[in-house]
């Protein structure tokens, strides 16, 4: 079991509306007690605000395209 502070969903950021994956009822982000944000939300924040949000935190990045790799690298470099 791993404990994390929050999850970043990276499943599409090139648009105004985040693309959320479909989850089985009762097995999605609603069961996680921490914060769940989408890459679109992260990219709408000021860089300093993003740095403050991820500094010292354990984070899971869900996805494997450009935004997921960029965000995972940023999290690794800061922490």
Automatic annotation (TrEMBL):
It comes from the Eukaryota. Signal peptide: none annotated. Keywords: FAD, Flavoprotein, Oxidoreductase. InterPro entries: FAD/NAD-bd_sf (IPR036188), Flavin_mOase-like (IPR020946), FMO-like (IPR050346). GO terms for molecular function: flavin adenine dinucleotide binding; N,N-dimethylaniline monooxygenase activity; NADP binding. Belongs to the FMO family. This is Flavin-containing monooxygenase. It comes from Nymphaea colorata. The lineage of its organism: Eukaryota, Viridiplantae, Streptophyta, Embryophyta, Tracheophyta.
